[in-house]
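Contributing new records

If you add data, match the layout below exactly. Sequence lines come first and carry their own label; structure lines follow with theirs. Keep one chain per record. Anything else will be rejected by the validation script.
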Amino acid sequence: MILLLGFDPWSASFVAHPYEAYAALREHAPVVRYEPTGQWLVSRHEDVSALLRDRRLGRTYTHRYTHEEFGRPAPDPAHEPFHTLNDHGLLDLEAPDHTRIRRLVSKAFTPRTVEALRPTVARLAGELVDGLLAAGGGDLIAAVAEPLPVAVIAELLGVPEVDRGLLRPWSAAITGMFELNPSAETARRAVTASAEFSDYLRALIRERRAAPGDDLISGLVTAADGADALTEQEMVSTCVLLLNAGHEATVGTTGNGWWALFRNPGQLALLRASVDELLPTAVEELMRYDTPLQMFERWVLDDIEIGGVTVPRGAEIALLFGSANHDPARFTAPDRLDLARADNPHITFGAGIHFCLGAPLARMELAESYGALLRRAPGLRLVREPKWRPGYVIRGLEELLVEI
């Protein structure tokens, strides 16, 4: 039945146009098991939003069960560097470790701290856009969308500028493991990148122990030596997560968002005419309209009923963010791009204890990036229709060629 409804995350046509399939799921099978991945798909906004806050679900289960007790196989020992890195990061921890680490890291993302970064973010965005202008155009993703968040997170962490070219390839290799049923080659690349990235950060941590600065790594080193007892592995995993999570959503929203604007020239003209007034709601709408993270997974820790369907303990739930953000039960005319949309409770940043810690920084980066392009390149035009990358979970464009 599911294939008839069009949900096929390995299909290029589905990745490019998933929203009709989502509509069919919401209407006919809002909670249903998808056999190719063994997951339960949940597609309605009301359900997804509630489940993100439900403590009967978890990003991990190992804080309560062994693999055997939970009915799941243990991770492949050959993938150990990836799992060690991933399993000690905020995104895949539950209380009390999650609470302890998030409390420490959140100090770097207070509104006041983030606002202090605005001049740096604005300068970096302006320089990148000026480079695109000087070239007469090019790939908007490679020229602006990708380097901006990487540079900002690297600045926050204190990664030397000479080393920043290493970060994006490592991140891309690691996040490949978040796709559905990753291949052996994807796993191999992720393992290699995990080991190399971890070794690099351990060396940087040693440098900060010897000569602390005012960057986040120095702050984590100080915390590791205090009462909160942050381990070195937790520091390494936290830094990697901040980079991976800190740039994927921003890159995706920038590329996907400009593609949406080019397909809706009336809305683009409206935004260009009222940048200052419309930009805050425009950023929120572009995050909703073509969500970069289409699926977010959780484990069922206790039997749970969702929409009249009982999902057993040990199951994995796939929360379909892209579908929830297009649910007509929550959004008026959800398939219409409305940059002035005021009632916009999108779940692009998640919800509950795993709500994106860097959401304020991501919003700032997007505002500065879009603002710089709209103001400095008012005649920005699309060269040709872009192609989507093959990944579905983290959904974005391969390139977005533009001219001035």
